[in-house]
Amino acid sequence: MHGGCNCGEIRYLVTRAPLTAYICHCHLCQKRTGSAFSMSIVIPADGLEVTAGNPIRKERPIPGGGSNVSLLCPSCYSRISTLREGRPTINVRAGTLDDTSWIKPVAQLWTSSAQPWALVDGILSYEEQPSDFSALLAAWKGAASRK
Ligand SMILES: [Zn+2]
Ligand SMILES: [Zn+2]
Questions:
Q1: Cα of 59 from ligand 2 centre, angstroms
Q2: Is the pLDDT reported for residue 85 higher than 90?
Q3: Centre of ligand 1 from the C-alpha of residue 99, in Å
Q4: Which of the four pLDDT bands, split at 50, 70 and 90, describes residue 100?
Q5: Distance between Cα 92 and ligand 1 center (Å)
Q6: How far apart are CA 76 and CA 78, in angstroms?
Q7: Beta strands in 9-129 (DSSP E)
Q8: pLDDT attached to residue 87
Q9: 69 alpha carbon to ligand 2 midpoint, in Å?
Q10: What is the largest CA-CA distance in the chain?
Q11: What domains can you pick out in the chain, each with its CATH number?
């Protein structure tokens, strides 16, 4: 799967199958996207290959230790991905993929700060950040096997 930033300077390739997809209603995602929520796919950390451009590595400390490293386009500042240090997976901002038609999120996070009209019926829902993603991975697998 190919993707890239808004201006086209950064291009990337996803080389591993996604493990899950979700949307996040947290305030940070609302600020960052200027929208009601963000949408991510989760892939193994070695599954993202930048094929054009030199993304900015933006580090943000996480309360409680560690940090998130995001890749951004140096020209249009589109955010491509976020990796939490030490995790075996990486989150790709789903909207930066060239083809987003196949993505159906299986979960929504931070419903406590969601715009009421943006809540999705019939998917896993968490008021805040889930403590682990095993249910999200299982739901994604289940959805794939029903296709
Ligand atoms: Zn760009
Ligand atoms: Zn969020």
A1: 16
A2: no
A3: 17
A4: very high
A5: 15
A6: 6
A7: 11-14, 20-24, 38-44, 48-52, 56-61, 67-72, 79-84, 89-93, 107-109, 124-125
A8: 87
A9: 15
A10: 41
A11: 2-146 (3.90.1590.10)
